[in-house]
Design a protein that fits this description.
The chain has 365 residues and is mainly beta. The protein has helices spanning 16-22, 42-51, and strands at 4-10, 31-40, 58-66, 70-71, 84-86, 93-94, 107-110, 116-117, 130-133, 140-143, 146-149, 154-157, 164-167, 174-175, 186-190, 197-198, 211-214, 220-221, 234-237, 242-243, 246-248, 254-257, 264-267, 274-275, 286-290, 297-298, 311-313, 320-321, 333-335, 337-338, 341-345, 361-364. The chain has a six-stranded parallel β-sheet, with helices on one face.
Length: 365
């Protein structure tokens, strides 16, 4: 017997495992759709995870009362068969990793009572394309399937299953931390003039995006906002602080981010004095970076993960190189010109640039 549509009502004495057995079902994996009313406890969620994770497609909890009004940490984690879920009114908190790894989940409702959603609640839900918030929820709102705060000024979460082009609604002022992280199906992004800040890892792992334009209204960009965007080859800052497709500080003295999709040779723009932290991290398609004499410092992990970089010549102007500037970088030679002499790595046995650090250069004739 397969693909059973089961409706059960639980009590404080009757738990899910027993209720399924009393319904005459010996193998809970035969249940395709489960509708639950009554008290649903952490133990019941554990039973679902352990016995129905790969086979339960629909979970309707609209008539249920959830223990402590919380969908607990990992409650439905790795329920890879789950396609749709209905969360009941009364739930106030969706905890860490509550739906982690529900890879087939396509839609979820957020009832009016939910006041807090953990940032990792829907992590790795690769097909989740729509979050629908009850109109009378006091904390959250939704538009086009994405999650916002009630004012719709702060974008909180774009479902990972979104595909194609996406336009952030006009009026949004803040793109939150990790808001678009791992939205690999997105191919183009429109950021409106209303946005003033882009959070930490906001677009991290958006491998389908090849170019992005940052409006001149943006005054703050968090660390690694465009990290692991392996096909992003061009960043255009409307405020004028971009050159050659790379993002610079407002003064144009610090190179902040070189897009990971850049290929071949890249020349540091004239006037840049600092190569910032993680500026070229994971630029795995670059074979050469030309550093001009203006540069004075190279930041932490600046060239980490540049696995195709062949040769990097550091000019005599450079005064400081961070300890981990060249982690996992494939270049075999690091040298600079100084008073007509060439410098090499202190560790003469090493052929790897990743051994470089502060005071790593010694003179040779």
């Amino acid at each position: 017997m397969k693909n059973i549509d089961l409706s059960i009502c639980l009590t404080s004495e009757l738990r899910l495992e027993q209720a399924i057995k009393e319904a005459g079902i010996e193998d809970p994996a035969c249940v395709n759709k489960l509708t639950v009313c009554g008290l649903l406890t952490d133990n019941d969620f554990a039973y679902i995870r352990e016995n129905m994770a790969n086979t339960l497609n629909e979970l309707d909890m609209s008539g249920a009362v959830i223990e402590e009004n919380t969908i607990a940490h990992g409650a439905l984690e790795q329920c890879t068969g789950l396609i749709s879920v209905v969360i009941p009114e009364g739930v106030t908190y969706i905890s860490h990793c509550a739906f982690l790894g529900c890879a087939e989940l396509t839609s979820v409702n957020i009832p009016s009572t939910v006041a807090t959603i953990s940032g990792s609640a829907f992590y790795d839900c690769k097909k989740l394309a729509c979050m629908e918030v009850a109109p009378n929820n006091a904390e959250f709102a939704s538009e086009d399937g994405a999650l916002f705060d009630k004012s719709k000024k702060n974008m909180i979460f774009c479902p990972r299953g979104k595909q194609g082009e996406y336009a952030i609604p006009d009026g949004v002022t803040s793109i939150g931390e990790q808001a678009f992280e791992d939205c690999t199906g997105l191919t183009a992004m429109h950021i409106p003039q209303s946005v003033t800040s882009i959070g930490f890892k906001a677009f991290y792992g958006c491998t389908g995006i090849t170019a992005i334009t940052i409006p001149d209204s943006v005054i703050a960009i968090g660390n690694r906002a465009f990290g692991k965007c392996s096909n992003l080859a061009h960043i255009e800052a409307m405020a004028g602080n971009s050159e050659c497709g790379a993002l610079l500080s407002k003064s144009k003295k610090t190179l902040i981010t070189c897009p990971e999709g850049k290929t071949g040779t890249f020349t540091i723009p004239k006037g840049v004095v600092a190569i910032g932290e993680r500026a070229f991290e994971d630029c795995a398609k670059l074979t050469q970076v030309i550093i001009l004499e203006d540069v004075l410092s190279i930041g932490n992990k600046a060239f980490a993960g540049c696995v195709k970089l062949e040769t990097l010549i550091i000019p005599a102007s450079v005064e400081k190189v961070a300890k981990d500037a060249f982690d996992d970088c494939s270049a075999s030679v690091v040298c600079r010109q100084q008073n007509g002499r060439t410098c090499r790595l202190n560790n003469s046995k090493s052929k790897k640039i990743s051994d470089a650090g502060n005071n790593c250069f010694v003179q040779r004739n």
